[in-house]
Task: structure prediction
Amino acid sequence: MSSKTANERIIFGLKVRQRRQQMGLSFSDLSEASGLSVSYLNEIEKGKKFPKLEKIGALAEALRVPVQELMSTELADGLAPVGDLLQSNFLRELPLDLFGIELSKVVEIIATAPKRVGAFISTLVELSRNYALQEENFYFGALRSYLEMHHNYFEEIEEDVVRFTDQHPLRATEGPPADQLARLLREEYRYEIVENGLDAYPELQDLR
Result:
């Protein structure tokens, strides 16, 4: 069962979680009834593990549902919005891993109030289609928020600037003269500087 896709693992975990909560069972209760450890059940509900068939049978018996129903990728009405989102590309197109966010965690949040959160995300999807928003728009928005959150001040960069200006006779509060910067780039960093190198490319004239 290790070949199951992320969506299949997440849907299976959601169904186990929903049924466990419907029955009013704690992890310990379900662990005792199924013979599976609490930690393993937790991993299943998070969409990180997909059990082997015999363990699915034990789970189905403990949850009092047919094995086929538990293994089906169809979700009940309450979780249908989550299934729709998983089938769409919206969540996949977001660079969640770049921000250290797990897809299963996002789905778990959605599952707590699927209709309301699902409607909200569906609205975002519709807006992105209507306004032809691209992935780079998301990156620009995230970068802008990150800069605002840190008041456009980043201590590590500032420290690097201080170290660099200590190593070279540059003024920290003002930009270095162009000829001094050019000499530094040529001599220390082996750059080749082509004066007016963009003149032959009028389409690049707006670039700095």
Q: What stands out?
A: The chain has three domains: 6-71, 77-134, 155-187.
